[in-house]
Specification:
Length: 186
DNA sequence: GCTAGGATGCTCT
DNA sequence: GAGCATCCTAGCC
């Protein structure tokens, strides 16, 4: 199946985020359906890493859409974003949970003894399950080692909630989930 | 089932 | 030096 084209990402992150639901993320032999995302919306979003302007860490958010923004947090965890919007406008969508589809034995080995329900239910958990680290930062989602495929499920109900794990702009309704999925982070 | 607290180090002030 | 887009374990219902 074809990867989602760059033009898909070249739109408002609040539009791209719900449209990523149901699509399939591929890394090597591992695949998972995207069931939970959060939008981080450019310079006007005080919860965004890019809110205070460009830094070495967030530089990729100011670059072209359709690339990976992978950052390290809490001293031990990696999290994965898809960069959206035009060059110089910093926005991204955080991938928060996947429904494991393929490569599940490898995911279990990487994650250790956790129930399958927790394999990819959280932004740092899915990065560990898929072997994603800062080495993948700036990679192309269209041509790189980590890709998102066009197509996927489209018949499901989308629920919108506040974002998780932030303190500023906590109430903005920018978390999107497949409502009846049993693979969500909470 | 639930909550509280600790791990651990990079990033920016 | 403070804060962090998190996760896991221990302890207690």
């Amino acid at each position: 199946m074809e990867a989602v084209p760059r033009a898909f990402y070249d739109r408002d992150s609040r539009v791209v985020a719900p449209e990523l639901l149901g699509k399939v993320l591929v890394v090597g032999g591992c695949r998972g359906r995207i069931v939970e995302v959060e939008a981080y919306a450019g310079g006007e979003d005080p919860a965004s890493h890019a809110y205070r302007g460009p830094t070495p860490r967030n530089a990729v958010m100011f670059g072209p859409p359709g690339h990976l923004y992978v950052y390290f947090t809490y001293g031990m965890h990696w999290c994965l974003n898809a960069v959206t919007e035009r060059v110089d406008y910093p926005a991204a969508v955080l991938i928060r949970a996947l429904e494991p589809l393929a490569g599940i034995a490898l995911m279990r080995r990487r994650r250790g003894p956790v129930p399958d329900r927790a394999l990819c239910a959280g932004p740092a958990r899915l990065c560990e399950a898929l072997g994603i680290t800062g080495a993948q930062n700036r990679g192309s989602l269209e041509r790189g080692a980590v890709r998102i495929l066009a197509g996927g499920r489209t018949r499901f109900r989308v629920a919108v909630t506040p974002r998780i794990g932030i303190t500023t702009a906590r109430d903005w309704p920018l978390r999107f989930v497949i409502a009846d999925s049993s693979w969500l982070s909470r």
